[in-house]
Design a protein that fits this description.
Helix content is about 35%, strand content about 25%. The chain has about 260 residues and is α/β, with parallel strands linked by helices.
């Protein structure tokens, strides 16, 4: 199976100077989507990279759909510009999906830039966990201590493990699955689009797998975890409301 990679840039030329050379040799097709903001394309590009320049700024999910529509292969990798894969990461994910035909999404082990483990494999969010993470309750109940179930902090599997959802920073997806579920939901401005994708995949019977032998280095920004009442907080709240409107059964999941 061949892999089409889509990397989405909103002014990330500095990060792309490191991630694109690491990714290009591992895939069969590499499309960089450059949104019309300064520094979306690095000065030097690997020769295999094709650039698609948007006329207007699009959301991550909308860009993912544009990238999928403008690539050709059976597997579609959507990657953040700051996600730097180790040399065999894509081959490991691809090999796993070849052996598991119902795997619709495969994600790697993610590490911070200092090499420490990043909790990229997670359970689907609940009302209780979201309230703690996005309100001043976080000061009393630190999320990474009291939401062990959501962040799966007590599980660090060394073998492939099925999961609810994974961070959307580096996900290998089966095009057949994307076609079946209608791709990414471009109605999300920012946040929760990866959760929604994985949730709809699950409802359609597609498996989602965490494959820890594939390793990707990623400096997760976690902007909404650092301050209250910013525009990012508002965007996240709107995204969660959209998710709950689409999937109201999650209102019953309190913990």
């Amino acid at each position: 199976m061949k892999v089409s990679a889509v990397v989405i840039s909103h002014g990330h030329a500095v990060e792309l100077a490191q991630s694109l050379p690491a990714l290009a040799p591992q895939v069969d097709e590499l499309l960089l989507i450059a949104n019309p903001v300064p520094d979306s394309v690095p000065v030097a590009l690997p020769p295999s990279v094709r650039v698609l320049r948007n006329e207007r700024v699009l959301s991550f999910a909308a860009n993912a759909n544009v990238g999928t529509a403008n690539t050709a292969h059976e597997l579609v990798l959507i990657a953040n510009p700051d996600a730097v894969p180790e040399p065999d990461a894509v081959a490991i994910l691809r090999g796993f999906m070849e052996e598991h035909p119902r795997c619709g999404v495969a994600g790697p082990r993610m590490l911070y830039s200092d090499g420490s483990w990043q909790p990229s494999r997670r359970s689907f969010p609940t009302i209780g966990a979201t309230l703690v993470r996005r309100t001043p309750l976080r000061l009393v109940f630190p999320p990474l201590r009291y939401q062990r179930r959501h962040y799966l902090l007590d599980e660090r599997p060394e073998e492939p493990a099925e999961t609810d959802t994974m961070l959307g920073a580096f996900l290998l997806q089966r095009r057949a699955m994307l076609d079946e579920i209608g791709g990414w939901d471009a109605g999300y401005r920012m946040y929760c689009e990866d959760i929604d994708l994985n949730y709809r995949a699950a409802k359609a019977g597609w498996e989602r797998w965490y494959v820890p032998a594939a390793v990707v280095h990623h400096e997760y920004a976690a902007v909404v975890d650092r301050k209250f009442l910013t525009r990012h907080t508002v965007w996240h709240a709107r995204a969660m409301l959209r998710f709950l409107r689409k999937h109201p059964e999650r209102l019953l999941a309190l913990r």
